[in-house]
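WARN retry 2 of 3 for item q-0093 after timeout on previous attempt; input resubmitted unchanged.
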Amino acid sequence: MFKEAVSIVDQKIKVIESDNGTIYLVGPIQLPVKLDEGEAIFQWYCWLLCKEQLDDAEQIIKKLSSINLAEMQQSSVLVYGDFEQADEAWIRMHSICHTGDIFGSKRCDCGYQLHESMHMIVEKGTGALFYLANHEGRGIGLFSKAMAYLLQEKGYDTVEANEELGFVDDARSYSDAILVLKALREKPVSLITNNPKKLDALQAAGLDVKNRIPLWGDRSEHNERYLATKVNRSGHFAASGCPNE
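OK item q-0093 returned
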């Protein structure tokens, strides 16, 4: 049975060289996703960055089964439509937000942005949602984000809380996601974002970004200051209806 598993997995693994090691991209895997009352069929990929290079699927399976991957976060990408060949494709680089994406927290707009961008990609007909697992709290991690939330409850804004704890405002890197994107598509993309840093990262890597599609919404009394801080402190593109401090 092990040989059969190796044979199946070996056909679905792509190796991508990175400055930080080797990226193993597994997929595509058909993933039906519930969207409101309907559903859409995405193609799911997951990637793992390893410091050492493994030669084949057998070595990968043996190596990974000997370590506790459940304690390590891995990133994903949901691909919709003919992503490789379509002339137009919309993409979203979405940073994981444990509280917003999973629990539906109203302290931010992350959960809304996750699901709305999936809707937008399906309506467009072609695109990909990159779900970046090491981006929690703009790159400071879930535990540090929880501490930052305590400071925010005492009046600090998002940027002030991160900096008071000794972090920078935004520690996220998009380098691995960009390598995966390049492995999946060579044609131009349009980026769903309000964040100029994401746009700059893709363009600096030589990607042809045709358009930027804004993604504002889900404003409430709980996240007004958070949304304003994005614009006034973190430099996000503003939108009509976005509050200012």
